[in-house]
Amino acid sequence: MDITDIANTATTMSDAYIQQASGTAVFKKALDIGADNAKVLIEALPDVAPTQNLPPHIGKNINTTA
Fold first, then answer.
1. In b/e form, how buried is each residue of 31-46, taking b as 16+ CB within 10 angstroms?
2. Any idea what DSSP says for residue 59?
3. Domain membership of residue 40 as a residue range
4. Residue 55 backbone class (left: φ over 0; alpha: ψ -120 to 50; beta: rest)
5. pTM for the full predicted model
6. What single-letter DSSP state applies at residue 57?
7. What is the count of structural domains for the chain?
8. Of 27-31, 49-53, 57-61, minimum mean pLDDT range
9. Is 11 part of any domain?
10. Residue 22 confidence class, pLDDT cut points 50, 70, 90
């Protein structure tokens, strides 16, 4: 193996590291943006208050035999 092969291998490895690091940074930024968007959507949900005066036992049980 001569010097040029070693230099080419080192350059290729360096390029691969840079590509991986930049890909990771872009992915992290996308996750941050997604988290921010989810937070905005959750905050935009209206407060759910009971609008009807239903008895307190309604909605407590689920029929699992149907």
1. eeeeeeeeeeeeeeee
2. T
3. 1-44
4. beta
5. 0.55
6. T
7. 1
8. 49-53
9. yes
10. very high
